[in-house]
Amino acid sequence: MHERSFIKGLIEQVLEEQRIRGLGAIRSIQLQVGEFSGMEPRLIELAFAEMRPEYWQTEVAMVVETIPLTAICKTCQAEFGVLSFRFICPRCGERDVTVTGGEELQITSLTIESPQVDPQSATGRQDQVV
Ligand SMILES: [Zn+2]
Q1: Is residue 25 classed exposed, middle or buried when 0-12, 13-18 and 19+ CB atoms within 10 A define those classes?
Q2: Ligand 1 centroid from CA 67, angstroms
Q3: d(CA 14, ligand 1 centre) in Å
Q4: CB-based contacts of 65: which residues, under 8 Å, 6+ apart?
Q5: Each residue's pLDDT tens digit, 44-92
Q6: Which of 11, 31, 73, 123 has a CA 20 to 30 Å removed from the CA of 61?
Q7: Measured in angstroms, how far is the CA atom of residue 81 from the centroid of ligand 1?
Q8: What is the pTM of this model?
Q9: Separation of 68 CA from ligand 1 center, angstroms?
């Protein structure tokens, strides 16, 4: 199950980011997972739920956004959603297509608690998305 090693790397990346930027407590991690990324969103959530207590005593949520697999036809430029990994243009039947979405595997944002006031914003109380 490679989701576990992915989550380990991800958590370490978040902790490093937190340390470098002096962020407050992490409340949630938003993640984009493409259908074509090789990762299973359900397994990612499961792995995170299992491993989270090793790093944080407090609750940290993981919010996974699944990105559908899409492609564009090199011949007729039609953009389409790829179903069941059939890389065939529905308009002209060509197989020469470029994947345009669905390979994402990245943190899009972190929600952090911000007890210290950020000089840039006067609202130090609200959760802040970075
Ligand atoms: Zn086409």
Answers
A1: middle
A2: 22
A3: 41
A4: 30, 31, 32, 33, 108
A5: 999 999 999 999 999 999 999 999 999 999 999 999 999 998 999 999 9
A6: 123
A7: 13
A8: 0.78
A9: 19
| Ligand 1 centroid, distance to 79 Cα (angstroms) | 8
35 alpha carbon to ligand 1 midpoint, in Å? 22
CA of 97 to the centre of ligand 1 (A): 8
User: How is residue 99 written in tokens?
Assistant: 């994947």
pLDDT in tens, 85-98: 899 999 999 999 99
Q: Where are the domains of the chain?
A: 3-70+104-129
The residues, ordered by sequence, that sit 6+ positions from 8 with a Cβ below 8 Å of its Cβ are: 51
Q: What is the CATH number of domain 3-70+104-129?
A: 3.30.2320.50
pLDDT attached to residue 125 = 46
